[in-house]
Amino acid sequence: MLNSLQTISRSIVVSLILTGLVRGQETADADSFRLNDTVAAPQQAPLQEFHFETGQTRMLNVSFDVPKAFLENPELVAIEPKSPKQLSLTAMKPGITNLNLWDANQSVYVFKIVITGKVSKLHELFVEQFPDAQLSLKQLSGSLLISGKVSDREQVSQIEAIGREYFPRIVTNIQIRRTQPREIVLKTRLIEISRNELRQSGLAWVPFAGEATDSEMQYKPVSPDDVLSQYLKKLDEKDVGSVINYPTLRTLSGRQVQFDSGGQMPAVESVAGEKTVRFRQVGFQMRLTPTVLDDGSLQLEMKPTMHQMDEASGLKKGGVTIPGIRSGTVDTVLRLQPGEFVAIHGIPGVRYYSKRENVPFFSDLPLIGTSIYKTRRIPDRLERIILVYADWGDGESSEKIATTR
Question: pTM of this prediction?
Fold first, then answer.
């Protein structure tokens, strides 16, 4: 029977069996263990989870003769029968495997074996490979907790990969330590889109986050497969829209930058219920504060403000209309992943253009007819989009995702 057990123990198959239902216990000898003699009914699930260190040999003692044994992974554990009721198990390398034992009644006893490496050896390897990292290792029940701080995300993946060579189950609580603020490049595009040009090109206006009003702005982060990203590409292909301004700003993580586009002009302002004329800001202003987070994403605090002329709130003096100023702003915080950019639908405006029309009969007169015509002011709604592309050294610049003139 012993020779039969030796032969069968060399035949290994793969199986995966879940949590144990019947409790076993270790003896006082640290290098041997056995089943509890009070086991009432063998189960086809792990009875006990045993923990080994690589290279350790322990004896398994059972209260019944073992005619057949069954090990799922021979690369992890070497098994050698010592007697009908005793097996020698030697841990070869880290991993998790199951051991099945049969008794004379063909009942199956299942053991889960968890093999780990030596924590001290792993710590020495981490110190050698990552001298600038601050790592702490704590062995749990069959797993390893790695905590501390490293300088970049790539080191986290490398540490996890090395750790799994020593422990089959790894739990990490590692933070990214920024020794220096990261440089961030912000490229802003202010685009005006004529509704008349859209109609002539065969495109419809696509509001991406609700229609902007005369005093409010809509905004959203945009990914490469977003509807707005594809729409911007179509505008570029159809040559619709004009880039009014395109500043490029460089800053460090956590530091605010700003720019102004426009200037000052005489405009009407209401003071204490009375209208007066003062020089006021016209155009576009933007304040941006980008911060690189530990997970690699970018937190972007932004406050765009737009001021534009408004004839409706103006004042007529001596036959001249002095316009008022209509303003809108938004103050918000967004989080961007690599490849994403921010789109802001600004305050829409109105531009008038003149269209020449013939005067019936008179415009058809010979010689003088071409000089007789009338002009009509036609309003054209202008949609304003502000795009903010960011490159913070993680993946492609988001500017490659959507382009415009």
Answer: 0.51
